[in-house]
Amino acid sequence: MEGSRIRILRTGQGLSLNKLSAMTGISKSYLSILEREIQKNPSIIVIEKLAEALNVDVDVLIKGRGRYEAESDGTGIVKLQLEFSEKNMEPEKYKRVKELLEILNETESR
User: Fold this and answer.
1) How far apart are CA 109 and CA 83, in angstroms?
2) DSSP 73-94
3) Tally of domains in the chain
4) Tell me: the pLDDT tens digits for 71-82?
5) Where are the alpha helices (DSSP H) in the chain?
6) CATH number for position 95
């Protein structure tokens, strides 16, 4: 599991480590360890708690794809960026998707 997914989803929803810790019952220090990828294999119970708190399928945290639910303004864009990561596609396609996301982000902020 990539810890950056947790960080992107958490910050995209405006959650601090303290708030996510309170929502999940997972210590702030362990969440930080996961986000910094010091620990890469949390238990399924931890993953399920995170998925529930972040409003995503477990697959989103494990594989980077799955069902997304936007809870606040702008999170749809953040989650799309998660699904369309640079390492999963050809450079030219990534460039086009990134440009599209930037256009959508501009449109949303108006």
Assistant:
1) 21
2) TTHHHHHHHHHS-GGGS-HHHH
3) 1
4) 444 555 555 554
5) 3-12, 17-24, 28-35, 44-54, 58-63, 75-83, 91-109
6) 1.10.260.40
